[in-house]
Every structure is written in C-alpha cells, then in structure tokens.
Amino acid sequence: MFFTSTNSATAAIAVSYGVGGFLLLWRGRSRSRPCRRVFYSMAWMFLSLSLESAAFLSQDFLPPTLYLLLGFIPLAFGLSGLSVILKQIQLGGAILRNAPGGVILLRLGKGQHLQVEACSDAATRDMGQNSWASFLDFKIPCANSINPLDEGRSLREAVTEVMATGKEIHGQEIHRGATEKQSGCWTLQDIVRINSSHALVSWSNISALKRAQFRYQKLANVDPLTKAFNRNILERLGSIPFAGVIVVDLNQFKSVNDTFGHKEGDLLLKKMASRLWTEIASQDRLIRMGGDEFVILVRSFNGLAELQAIAKRIHKTLQHPYELTCGGTVKMDASLGIAQRGHGGIDKLLKAGDLAMYSAKNAGGGVEIWSEALERKELRRKRIEQALRDLRGNHDSQMTLQYQPIVSLHNRKHICGMEALVRWNHPTLGAISPGEFIPIAESSREICHISDWVLVRVMRRCRLFSGIPVSVNLSPWDLEQIGFAESFKSMCDRFGISPGDIALEVTERPVRDFPFKHYSDSLRMLGSLGVSLKVDDFGVGEASPGRLMESAWADVKIDASLVPFRRSDKRKLAICSALITLVKSFSIHATVEGIETEEQAAIAKELGADAGQGYLFARPMDLEDALHWIKKRT
C-alpha cells in the first residue's frame, strides 16, 4: 500500500508546512516593511520544507531532483531574507550603540520587573559608576522637571506607568548631579511604548543649552553695573512669599553726576550696592529698580521692629563717606521706606514701600514706615497734584492773592514792602495751605505756572501800591528756566513798570542744595536789572555764608521759627543774634519774620534787625484791605 503510517506523517508535515507558509505570506502583507520581510522569509522556509516533504512522498512519480530543486528555490528566498534581516539587526545595533544621546530598550517582565535588553554607549557613559537598578530608581527632585506631575517619580515608575496607560512622555527635562541648577547634567527625556512588553527610553544631553539659558537669564535679570537683580526678576519672584520690603533711594544723587561726572556716579552706585549686599541675609533679594533706587525683598523677620532696625542699620551704612577716584570723598544721605506684607501681593508690597520712601524723601531723608494714614496722606497729595494740573491756565478761578506788609523796626510808619501770598480754595478739597500745596507744586513742576500767574497779577496791580515794592516768592525751578531773566524784563516792559518795583524772594534751602545749571546765572542777570533779591526763611538748615557772597542779595529774612518769644529764651536769642550779625557783616538788609508781640519786635530791633513782618503789624490782606491799610499808615 502506498500510504503507510510513515507516509501519512510525512504528508501531514508537508501539508502543515505548506499551510503555515501561505499563512505567513498572507499575514505578512499587512505588516510594516521590516516585519513583512521577516514574515516572507519564514514563509519561504516553510514552503521549502513542505516541498522537501512532498519530494519524499512523490519519489515514485517525479524525479527527487525536481522536488529538491523546487524546495531549494523558496529556501534560497528564505535565506536571502534572513541575511537581510541579520544585516538590518546589525545596522540597528550599530545605530543604537552610536546614538548621540542615551537610549535603552527595556522589557517588562513578570512582577513589573524591568530588564535592560539593549542600550547605547552614551547611556552607559551617562550611567557612570551606577548600576542600572540605581539609574532606574533615581527620583526626579522637586522643581527639576517642567512637568509637575513628574516630580518625585523614578524612571522605573514613569516607564511602568507608560506601559500600563500607553500615555507616552515627551520633552521631560531632568536635572541630575549638582544641587545648583547651573551645573550638573540636564537631559531631555522621552519614554515610548513599543509593545505590551517593551519600552524605549531616550534622552539627549542639553546641559550646554541649559547653561546658555542660565547665562541669558542672568544677563536679562541682573544689572550689569551693580550685580544686583533688575526689575525683570519681579515676574519670577511674584510667587515667593516675601515678608517685607525696604525701598532705598539716595538723596541728591544727581548732584554727583553733575559735579563729578557719570563715571563717578556709576562707581558710587557700585559701592552703594556693595554696602547693601553686606547688610542683607542670603535668602533676601537686592533689586535695582533704576537710577539710584534699590529694593530689598526680605524673606523673613520677627516683627516690624526688626525690619525697622535693619532699615536703620542700612541707612547708617549708606551715610558713611564714599571715596571717589578723582580724589576726595562725598557724603550721601538716603531715604528708606519699609512695609510688611499684608493681604496683597508683591506689587502692593512694592507700592507701599515706595510710598513710604517718598514720604521719607519729602521729610529730608531717613526711614519711614508705611501706614494707612501715610497712604491717605499720599492719596490727598495725588489729588492735590492732579488738581494743580487741572488748574493750569485757569488759576483765577480758584486762587487769590493776599498781601502782608514788611515794616521798619526803627520807624513803623515806614513800609519797606508788601509780600504777595498765594491762597487756594479748592471746590472739593477746601482751603489748602501754601505749606501743603507749594512743595507738591515744586515736585510736579507746576510751580512755574503758579509763579507766572502771580507775577502777572502783581505787575498788573503794582502801580496801586504807590512805589512800595511788592515781593513775589519764586521757586528755584523758576530761576532754572532758560531765559527767565529776559522773560521777566519783557513782562515789566509790557506792564510799564521798573524791575526795581518788584522784589523776588527765594528760600534758603534751594540756594544751598540744588545743583541747577541756570539758577545762579538767572540771579546774576536779575540783579543786574535792578531787581531786589531776597533770601527767604534763612536759618532753617545749615547757614551758607559762602552762597550769600555769590549773588547780590539785598535782603535776608530770618525764619520765624528762630525768633525768640521772650528774652529768657537764651538759645533762640543766641541763634537769632548770630544770624543777624552774619547778615549785617555782608552789608545786607536783615528782616525778621513771624513777629507777633511787642517784646519780639523789641528783641529784633536790639539785635540789629532792620525790618519785621508778622501778625503784630498786620495779617495777610486782600488787595482792597491792603491798599486801605497803606493809606491809613501814610
């Protein structure tokens, strides 16, 4: 019988190999090209074995050589495919080993155990002396990943999650090594799931890029002159809970630049920042807001008293003399504003500190603490400033002039002059004293518009005073205007009066401190026109006899706060006597302000004063009352 038991088994094998080969061909057609090549190679091998088995069964019908030849053809195809596959595997291995970044192929075994099946040479180098287990178990420190969900997870946990959920991870920044982010190793990592049991982890070393980013951030956020942070850093520090702020500003820093040059000014700022660095804690932040203004963000302190003590210590340090490269030293004062954190963020904290600093600056320097009362005061100040701007060109609607006489102490019937005083009655703010709105007008430069209005009003009415000179108070900002003296002369010609009919009063403080360029020139030109120049409020601060020599002052008015009420007030008596003696030594007329009693008038006369002004003689009056008062006296 042809089909024996052996033949039956051989036939079954031939059929199985044939069916298997055709199934592999059919399944391989829908695969990717590399997988299809594997399927087709195996299919040809199966078909070759099927044909070889058929040759064994059919040796009585066809020559065995034919079957062997028919079997060799698919075998050749299969071996050729396997050769290509082996070359591709070798090429893939070479690519994997020589990949520029780290690459590891992981297999997920039983019990969620990860095993490294292949890796690149770069991965081996990055691993260093560590084992693969410790490399996989490295936990990403907090804030070292751009994805907050990755913080505190190990690579093993991340791969396991990717395998379970299929959600791949791309672009994960990881920092390894040093504590400081500027050093150590930065990598950009991807985790990809290949199939149910394999995952590919790849990363590239971006340390050079990150260091370049840090350098750029440093250039963008650090002031190149003082090495302090600049205001750009505030955006990054907004989420940090700083407990308080100290705002620091140097007083009269502009005078250093104007006198010694910007190079010396920059050097002074560097030394100032160096002193500030030594006075703050390591967790605090020093920020240069611009110019000579610095901000210190304090991370923690025990109560407002400690913050105030820190500010006072800084203030004392900044008052020490600064040495200049051009020779000599300069002593600077500073204004500091402090505020502690409330319910607002860092913007409100800075606003409160800035408010306190400007309050300290207006007071002449020192340390000021923010308070609600201070904020109300600043709100009123801003309302007054805005009201002054709204009043520009329309001062007649709210402002008026009053006149107070200046009387000779030797003959009280002799009127030395009349001082024009501005009064402001705002429709909503009410009556605002000159002591409140004049400093605001000076700081906002609105004082020049007010002075122009006063000069026009006084010159228009000057003839009514029958030759008595009328004094007008000027701000140093008026005298700083280019061509002020020429403009003043033109106004006199316009109203048909002599420049000598007007006296101009300037406070002593601006004469001493303001480093203006045209101020002194304006004074000299006004003096040459025959204008009577007076120093107002003399003695409030440090007396400046040298300054009194620089201009042709006709009169010096001793400030009312220095006039003794009685002879028993020995200190004021000595100060007033010294000032009058100083003024008279320059052959300048001396006037004492604020005389309210006969005893004060007698004391001023005994000390050598020429004239007096105050409530004893007359209060400020409207034009009609002032003219009536003059008529009665003469």
Distance between the termini: 167 Å
Low-confidence blocks of residues = 142-150, 510-514
| Oligomeric state as shown | single chain
Helix content: 40-55%
Average predicted local confidence, pLDDT:
80
SS field, number of helical segments: 23
Task: Characterize the biggest β-sheet.
Answer: 8 strands, mixed, barrel
Radius of gyration: 47 Å
**Given the helix and strand composition, which structural class is it?**
alpha/beta
The global form is rod-shaped
The counted number of beta strands is: 22
Offer a few descriptive terms.
634 residues, alpha/beta, 8-stranded mixed β-barrel, 6-stranded mixed beta sheet, 22 strands, rod-shaped
How do the helices and strands line up, and which of them pair or pack?
Elements: H1 5-28, H2 33-57, H3 64-97, E1 102-108, E2 114-119, H4 121-127, H5 132-136, H6 155-165, E3 169-176, E4 185-193, E5 198-205, H7 207-221, E6 229-230, H8 234-237, E7 244-250, H9 253-260, H10 262-279, E8 285-290, E9 293-298, H11 303-318, E10 322-323, E11 329-330, E12 334-340, H12 346-362, E13 366-369, H13 372-390, E14 399-408, E15 415-426, E16 430-432, H14 434-443, H15 447-461, E17 470-474, H16 476-480, H17 484-495, E18 502-507, H18 508-513, H19 519-528, E19 532-538, H20 545-550, E20 553-558, H21 570-585, E21 589-593, H22 598-606, E22 611-613, H23 623-633
Parallel strand pairs: 6-8, 12-13, 15-17, 17-18, 18-19, 19-20, 20-21, 21-22
Antiparallel strand pairs: 1-2, 1-5, 3-4, 4-5, 7-9, 7-12, 8-9, 10-11, 14-15, 14-22, 15-16
